[in-house]
Amino acid sequence: MQNNTFIVLSDSGLPTEDIYFLESAAPALRRQGATIERAVASRSFGAAWRHGRSFLHQYAGANLLLCRSLPLGWLRWLERHRQAFGYIGYLIDDDIGAAAHDTTLPPAYRKRMARVAKFQPRLMVLSNEVIACSDVLAERFRPHHPCVSVLTPPLIATLPMKTHFESSPSASAPWRIGFHGTRAHLDDLLNIAPALQAIQYTRDDTQLELMLGKHTPSALVELPNVLAPGPLPWHAFRSYQAKCHLHIGLAPLLNTPFNQGKSFIKFLDIAAMGGVGVYSNRYPYTDVVNDGINGLLVEDDPEAWQAAIEQLLNNPIATAKMAHQAAKDASEIGNPQRAINFWQARANQSNVNEGAS
């Protein structure tokens, strides 16, 4: 098995795997001769050992990519057979430990993150390198691993045309304002709820979409012109994102330990839906948002959020200009070539090590 083979040993972390590797870097690496596959790690303990024999026969010598977590059976199997493989990278895009202890997060989510956090040290021991999505998250891992690198999120979506800005918003063709965060950001959304209430009660030319389904706060779902579709599976969301265009995207982010480890991926997501974003005035958004140029940075005060959203609504030409600039900047900071170079360097190093052995 040549070391230009990369196998994603997947615990169903599809967004992480696709964004940081499979849909950003992998197509170019395949054109350069690399073999890249995704192998699903079954959660059945017995299946890990049964499938492990086949996996070992097929992929001995390959480089492995682990994302966020691994079922316990597979973790134990890999610990036993670590020397059969080449480079192992551990890719992480959230502060799992902080999530497990954050009382503002949903209890079920905290419980799930606590299970992942329990085994994270063992995953790091297996890995040659920890790859984090932001500088802050990387710093949290550096005391625990000798090799920690940063790979910021690549843009894997095709940016849309901005034709939805060409017509004057009205009650029949309203401004589309969207929040597409997960339940982990429910408190962030609730903090700006008074701003959204004020806007939806006083205007008839705005439509607010909150993709939280049954978890949408009643104070918001009962507002005029609010849509609350349920969260979508990853690939369904990608299709939806490509077809559904926004004018304004909302990315509130309170100052919690869990949020501090976040990447700027919402900047890319909002650009992917054709919009301009309103962001909390803190890292990571302060790294990519030029206030008033490609988005707006706002403090944690609901009145400030209301003023920022109204600024965009009341100045459609300036807002469209910001959306165009946001798309241009998203293409630059999310250029997949950075991810291609990152993973190509790992493949090259693996080949050097193989030749020296």
Characterise the protein shown here.
- This protein is α/β, with parallel strands linked by helices.
- It folds into two domains: 5-154 and 336-356, Glycogen Phosphorylase B (Rossmann fold); 163-333, Glycogen Phosphorylase B (Rossmann fold).
- Helices cover 46% and strands 15% of the residues.
- It contains 16 helices and twelve strands.
- The chain has helices spanning 14-22, 26-31, 45-59, 72-80, 96-101, 107-126, 135-141, 186-191, 193-202, 218-221, 234-243, 257-260, 265-272, 302-314, 316-333, 336-356; strands spanning 5-10, 35-40, 63-67, 88-92, 129-132, 148-150, 175-179, 206-210, 226-227, 248-251, 276-280, 296-298.
- The strands form two sheets. The chain has a six-stranded parallel beta sheet, with helices on both faces.
- Helix 13 (265-272) crosses helix 15.
- The radius of gyration is 22 Å and the shape is globular.
